[in-house]
Design a protein that fits this description.
mainly alpha; 4 helices; about 50% helix; Cyt_c_Oxase_assmbl_COX16; mitochondrion; transmembrane helix; Cytochrome c oxidase assembly protein COX16, mitochondrial
Length: about 120
């Protein structure tokens, strides 16, 4: 099988040179990738240095050792703790019912007669 070569109508010098030697296109691309890798390494190193510096900074409380075994204050937790303590010391007491009221409450009333139209 024969190969069909593509020939542009008006070939330029660059087009002819790339067809004869394809490395003219590939070598600058590879050089660009290598140079970008070295260029980006400085930015990456700066990023990690800043992150490391932030992690190593100590607050005043950490320097003095005040944060050891200290629990963070939460108002909701304190509310529930105090409300549970108030509910522990009580007993249900039965009071005397008013006169004429049965022990199990008021009996239901009889429905009135409805007038049918």
């Amino acid at each position: 099988m024969t190969r069909f070569e593509s020939k542009p109508l008006n070939p330029t010098k660059l087009n002819r040179a790339v067809q004869k030697n394809p490395a003219l296109f590939g070598i600058p691309f590879i050089l660009l990738m290598v140079a970008a890798s070295y260029g980006m390494s400085t930015f990456t190193q700066t990023r990690y240095d800043l992150h490391d510096h932030k992690v190593k900074q100590l607050t005043k409380a950490q320097e003095l050792g005040l944060d050891q075994e200290r629990k963070k204050f939460d108002i909701r937790e304190e509310y529930f703790k105090l409300s549970s303590q108030a509910d522990e010391n009580w007993e249900p007491k039965r009071i005397r019912r008013p006169k004429g009221l049965p022990e199990w409450g008021v009996p239901p009333t009889e429905p009135s007669d409805y007038k049918k139209s």
